[in-house]
């Protein structure tokens, strides 16, 4: 599928990225430099405008149906169709060398 980005619902639409699978959820970072997208394969945080994958996650149980960046842009709130809510601290995960600390980067709330 393709992701289209429009600001304020105005046309014309711009093709943002081309994906191998249709997205189930997406979110634009507060500073508009990153775009998070969920598919059935997992979640990726893409760098804009190149669409290069900066961070990826495949360990969320259940289909992801909502994503929202933290206002600081360093983590992502994830809502799964099974009712689970997660916070993925992808920046912490990337900066941490310890396997134990990296495992704490994904928090489950419900």
Task: Write out key terms for the chains shown.
110 residues, mainly beta, four-stranded antiparallel β-sheet, 2 helices
List unreliable stretches of 5+ residues: none
Number of helices: 2
Order of helices and strands: EEEEEEEEEHHE
Using only C-alpha atoms, the radius of gyration works out to 14 Å
The tally of strands reads: 10
Give the % helix: 10-25%
Strand content: 35-45%
Termini separation: 31 Å
Overview of this protein structure:
There is one protein chain. This protein has 110 residues and is mainly β. Helix content is 10%, strand content 45%. It is built from two helices and ten strands, in the order βββββββββααβ. The strands form three sheets. The protein has a four-stranded antiparallel sheet with strand order 3-4-5-6. Strands 7-8-9-10 form a four-stranded antiparallel sheet, with no helix packed on it. The protein has a two-stranded antiparallel sheet with strand order 1-2. The longest helix is centred in the last third of the chain and has 6 residues, at 90-95. It is globular. The N and C termini lie far apart (31 Å). The relative contact order is 0.15.
């Amino acid at each position: 599928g393709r992701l289209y980005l429009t600001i304020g619902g105005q046309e014309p639409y711009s093709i943002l990225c081309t994906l191998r699978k249709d997205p189930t959820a997406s979110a634009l970072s507060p500073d508009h430099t990153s775009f998070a997208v969920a598919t059935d394969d997992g979640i990726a945080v893409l760098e804009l405008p190149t669409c290069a994958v900066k961070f990826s996650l495949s360990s969320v149980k259940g289909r992801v149906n909502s994503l929202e960046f933290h206002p600081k842009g360093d983590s992502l709130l994830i809502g799964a169709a099974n009712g689970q809510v997660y916070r993925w601290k992808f920046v912490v995960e990337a900066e941490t060398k310890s396997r134990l600390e990296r495992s704490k980067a994904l928090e489950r709330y419900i």
